[in-house]
Design a protein that fits this description.
Elements lengths: L5 E10 L2 E2 L1 H9 L5 E3 L12 E3 L12 H4 L4 H17 L11 E6 L5 H14 L8 H5 L3 H10 L5 E4 L5 H15 L4 E8 L4 H9 L29 E9 H7 L5 E10 L12 H14 L8 E3 L8 H13 L8 E2 L2 H4 L6 H15 L1 E2 L22 E2 L4 E8 L3 E8 L4
Parallel strand pairs: 5-6, 5-7, 10-11, 10-14
Antiparallel strand pairs: 1-2, 1-8, 1-9, 3-4, 7-8, 9-15, 12-13, 14-15
């Protein structure tokens, strides 16, 4: 018995190169860098003074003003992205069984702004001044709760955490709920707002982020020999996915098919990828198998491509192992070169880019690729977007803790 097809009927994006689907895609296709000097706090004394911020974001466009005050920034970004996806999918225009619509959200870190601000209140004014909303503003799963409450979605509802693989896992497990028959529709994705004093200081201490303070827009340079770390970013990305039968029944536009999902663990190191790329290879192969696809059918890969010394060559090795000779015949690009690394949101925003590559026939570039690392020997679409016929695309996300996830999307055909 063949399994039901899972399709995408809504997408929403809030990221450093654009708010909303059209703006975000235009930012990626045009090669726009979202890196700017950090405005969230005084960066004096920090080794890194820039990040990819979401600018001109008005949460009141999507959220009741009173509710905004009870949400951490990560929740605001994710809620806005989910609202866009829900609107596009026309979920609120139908008389649907809300008991059969669920939400899986993800955040790698959760409410860091709330944690820092309330810790300062505790230290400066005492425990009695800590906000009664502190806990529900901080916990990562609260985003799924807010989306559920706002739209009266009563199906499976929870949050997942797997560092930089979080959003991909959220989408993948939401797909599994649909295949298991637990729901007809799932709203899924991730959000992150880590640009706080502790967030930047912590990643600086790990020597994980770029310190190219004199040229922030040039700092994120995946697969380039001169890369010196990733660029921190904030953002949110969400999808509405449902069974093909359910989407057809309500006559909604199908944007693409969510064909496959693969996941694995490196079981190697807390922060470094396994040198052979074994975990990434197994995740990619599992995604292909679950989608019923051969490696030769893949037309584009949106790489994890963090711009770190270890990730880029190891992911390159993994792609070549998983796809064989075909790996050198297709475009591979890293949209992190433009958006920066949105941690727990990155998988959703990069899946959006993969879907858009299919729908528009345009592959976004890897900007700042001026001196390609010889160890990174695939075709990374340097500096300018290109036209390609993309029918099947893959998106890789790899997280601290050795978490690996790969999503595969297909062009929708009636």
């Amino acid at each position: 018995m063949s399994r039901p097809k899972i399709v995408i009927t809504g997408m929403g994006v809030v990221c450093p190169v654009g708010i909303g689907r059209d703006a975000a895609w235009e930012g990626m296709v045009s090669g726009k860098s979202g890196a700017v000097p950090i405005s969230r706090f005084d960066t004096e004394g920090y080794k890194t003074t820039f990040a990819c911020e979401v600018t001109d974001f008005d949460p009141g466009t999507y959220i009741d003003r009173k509710l905004v005050k009870r949400m951490d920034l990560f929740c605001q970004l994710g809620f806005a992205a989910a609202a866009q996806a829900i609107e596009q999918s026309k979920l609120m225009e139908e008389s649907l069984d809300r008991n059969r619509i669920g939400v899986v959200s993800g955040s790698g870190i959760g409410g860091m702004y709330s944690y820092e601000s309330q810790m300062m209140r505790l230290v400066e004014m005492g425990p009695g001044k800590v906000s009664p909303f502190f806990i529900p503003m901080m916990i990562g799963d609260i985003l799924a709760g807010h989306i559920s409450i706002e739209h009266k979605l009563k199906g499976p509802n929870y949050g997942v955490v797997s560092a930089c693989a979080t959003a991909s896992h959220a989408i993948g497990v939401a797909m599994m709920h649909l295949l298991a028959g637990d729901a007809d529709v799932m709203v899924c994705g991730g959000a992150e707002a880590p640009l706080t004093q502790m967030g930047v200081a912590g990643f600086n201490s790990l020597n994980a982020i770029s310190t190219r303070n004199d040229a922030p827009e040039k700092a994120s340079r995946p697969f380039d020999k001169d890369r010196d770390g990733f660029v921190m970013a904030e953002g949110g990305g969400f999808f509405v996915i449902e069974t093909e039968a359910h989407a057809r029944k309500r006559g909604v536009e199908i944007l693409a098919e969510l064909g496959g999902y693969g996941f694995s663990a490196d079981a190697y190191h807390l922060t470094a990828p396994e040198p052979s790329g074994d975990g990434t290879i197994r995740a990619m192969k599992a995604a292909l198998e679950s989608a019923g696809c051969e490696p030769e059918e893949v037309d584009y890969i949106n790489a994890h491509g963090t711009s770190t010394p270890y990730n880029d060559p190891i992911e390159t090795l993994a792609i070549k192992s998983a796809l064989g000779d075909h790996a050198k015949k297709i475009p591979v690009s890293s949209t992190k070169s433009m958006t920066g690394h949105m941690l727990g949101a990155t998988g959703a925003v990069e899946l959006f880019a993969s879907v858009q590559a299919i729908r528009t026939g345009i592959v976004p570039p890897t900007i700042n690729l001026d001196n390609q690392d010889p160890e990174c020997d695939l075709y990374y679409v340097p500096n300018k977007a290109e036209k390609h016929d993309v029918r099947i695309a893959m998106s890789n996300t790899l997280g601290f803790g050795g978490h690996n996830a790969t999503l595969l999307v297909k062009k929708w055909q009636e």
